[in-house]
């Protein structure tokens, strides 16, 4: 899994945006809902259960304010006539439809063909058929001709044309461990089969050691360096602008990987506790709104986060050729660094320098340091229904380049500014980012290893 935390841990890079506002749900009249459900051949509770089971969601999620809006959203009901027409038009049999209900897990919930209420769900159950048009679309997506795709399947002992449903092909290519899926995975990371064999051998592993495609892909992404390269590509413009080299970022990345690889339940509980402490500050826009005790709490949260991730930080204010170290407490009270530069050094717990970077006054005062308007507890990931027309596409994180900041390292004393600054926002933003990014990463990692 891509470590979103790695981006979040650089406390000066990004800020989480406010959570989208929630809209109020207008409840549908109960009697009208019962009448509509009766039209469909069920009752209100049965309809609600059906909508969830067939991935429409709850009535609140569908967000229909009336039965008419709900009717419009759901479409035509199934009748014996249009069910038969659906089978005839697609060359399906009733037996194939019943089998598909079993394959998709609906039969286990008590559904048969007569229990499917909506025409849309007839197509949803069967999925897209394997035909010339859909095969050509798949081949185009994979940058191949249909013949090349068929040959690849044949080389690995499979017959492309033996599949009835596109979902089964997607499963073969994107979710199962087999020669076909391995071909595309290795193509993605620019690795040969021989190189993979060597990588597995170096780690004392074989393909049989992986329980799922995701587990295998995660191993290859991490151990091959592909994951790091993708991370670097997404953030390099900003990092280089503030003086962080690729080598420094790799040091930092490897450190976090080591820390998180040994994460246990105690680590996770400390992380959630840190996140809970941050929720108190979700309504503040800048650190200047906080009183002294709240500033002290922010500093305490920062210290706890640094300890948790086995990091140490040193801060300096630089003006020309003079540089003065400032403490985290002093930094929380500074309001304007003017033309000075905030120079940050990040170390591991043993005192080894991982990276350093510089922030100009303009960058420190930039609104990337606004405190997120809301902080949400992570929720268990919910399995989403696979798309019908496309295989899953990996998304890249994009980061907007910032202004260039100059690194200065000459040392000499300089008096601290009397006023106290948005520089302090760096602390709060950094703590939020570390907790938010890490909690999401840790939650997903914990969930993956518990399955």
Runs in which pLDDT lies below 50 for 5 or more consecutive residues are: 1-25, 366-429, 431-451
Q: What is the terminal separation in angstroms?
A: 15 Å
Order of helices and strands: HHHHHHHHHHHHHHHHHHEEHEEHH
Proportion of strand residues = 5-15%
**Average pLDDT number:** 76
**Order of neighbouring strands in the sheet with most strands:** 2-1-3-4
Topology, number of strands? 4
Protein name: Processed acidic surface protein
Keywords: Membrane, Signal, Transmembrane, Transmembrane helix
InterPro entries: Acidic_LPXTA
Q: What does this molecule look like?
A:
With 451 residues, the protein is of the alpha+beta class. Among the domains are: 30-126, no CATH class; 263-379 and 394-450, no CATH class. The protein is 51% helix and 7% strand. It has 21 helices and four strands. A hairpin with a 4-residue loop joins strand 3 and strand 4 (353-360). Helix 17 (265-279) packs across helix 21 (423-450). The longest helix is centred in the C-terminal third of the chain and has 28 residues, at 423-450. Residues 1-26 form the signal peptide.
What does the secondary structure layout of this molecule look like, with pairings?
Blueprint (H helix, E strand, L loop, with lengths): L3 H6 L20 H11 L3 H10 L5 H4 L4 H8 L5 H10 L4 H10 L15 H8 L5 H10 L4 H10 L10 H9 L4 H11 L3 H10 L10 H11 L2 H16 L4 H16 L3 H15 L12 H17 L2 E9 L2 E5 L1 H5 L8 E8 L4 E8 H5 L57 H28 L1
Antiparallel strand pairs: 1-2, 1-3, 3-4
Helix pairs in contact: 15-16, 17-18, 17-21, 18-21
Protein name: Processed acidic surface protein
Organism: Terribacillus halophilus
Keywords: Membrane, Signal, Transmembrane, Transmembrane helix
